[in-house]
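Q: I'm writing a short methods note and want an example of a predicted protein-small molecule complex. Could you take the sequence and the SMILES for nicotinamide-adenine-dinucleotide and return the bound structure as tokens? Please keep the output block clean; save any remarks for afterwards.
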Amino acid sequence: MSVRVGVIGAGMIGQDHIRRLTDVVTGATVTAVTDLDAARAGEVAARIGATALSTGAALIASPDVDAVLVTSWGPTHAEHVLGAIAAGKPVFCEKPLATTAEDCLRIVEAERAHGRRLVQVGFMRRFDPGYRQMKEVIDAGSIGTPLIVHCAHRNPTVPDAYVSAMAAQDTAVHEIDVLRWLLDDEIVSAQVITPRATSKRFEHLKDPQIMYFETANGVRIDLEVFVNCQYGYDIQCETVGEEGLVRLPDPAAVGIRTTGRHGTAVLQDWKGRFADAFDTEFREWIASVASGGEPTGPSSWDGYAATVITDAAVRSLESDGTTVTVDMKPRPAFYGGTA
Ligand SMILES: NC(=O)c1ccc[n+]([C@@H]2O[C@H](COP(=O)([O-])OP(=O)(O)OC[C@H]3O[C@@H](n4cnc5c(N)ncnc54)[C@H](O)[C@@H]3O)[C@@H](O)[C@H]2O)c1
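A: Understood, no commentary inside the block.
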């Protein structure tokens, strides 16, 4: 039987996930859509034969909705996720889980009180084939104990609305999540420094930024966030261990020889780069819901951790590069910890 999904927020990524659930993933049907923009909800729902509902609360309560997908604006996520937990329905929430650590903890506590995991957070890199291969290599011990990770996250350009704190909150947050998972380790401090700024930015933005993270096991991570690099969307990650290193592969692309040059095209946005990861993420989420099991992807604890680590990075940026200790509660046994 098909999992009936209700979608809260039919904007850019909401519509992309609706297409994915409708055309790519088997075993799912989008039955309800809501958006603050009622006309948009009506138009998107009509396209796929779903019902347009007036609020997130009505959608969560609908008997035609088995599972909820939250793709509205970040500050509204907590309300919808808490509503889904109260209704006992599985909920996939695009990142961020919530915009404050307090709201993330409210979700964590509500889910623990419910007694089983209902929440998955949309950190899709864990589903990318390249990162999964890297994790297999690290877990197999093939490079020995990890010591250092070098990363870069580059976008061609960003709009005027992108402010300096978003380098951590919207951009580096993907590395923060995937590196915690890749290393099976916790990030305990953050430092953000700003080298010479590119002239290709809007005046208010600090770009590029170099972020340093340290883990509980002493691994050092350096991450270049450069969101006006001009040339393309480029994600790099290399983990150095005691006996070798493992590097994220570039996306497969044909080699082109022309006009005396040999090269490959560089992707221009994250949608193309992580298309396979998004598809796998939703296939696995729908499979977990269909089986009646708990989600296997990033948990609400991971959503909380990402928020407190990005908070530390923003505090460092705002205090001229001071190293800031991450203020994280002990991880409860419910989420694989010892507390
Ligand atoms: N995983 C990723 O890489 C990734 C990529 C893009 C966006 N996102 C996340 O997805 C979310 C949505 O981003 P977007 O780019 O699609 O934004 P968007 O502005 O294109 O769409 C958001 C939609 O939600 C609607 N909305 C807002 N509050 C609502 C509410 N309370 N109830 C119903 N509808 C509401 C808006 O009217 C809008 O149509 C953000 O949290 C963003 O961070 C994640």
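A: Remarks, as requested: The chain has two domains: 3-123+276-297, 126-273+304-335. The chain has a mean pLDDT of 97.
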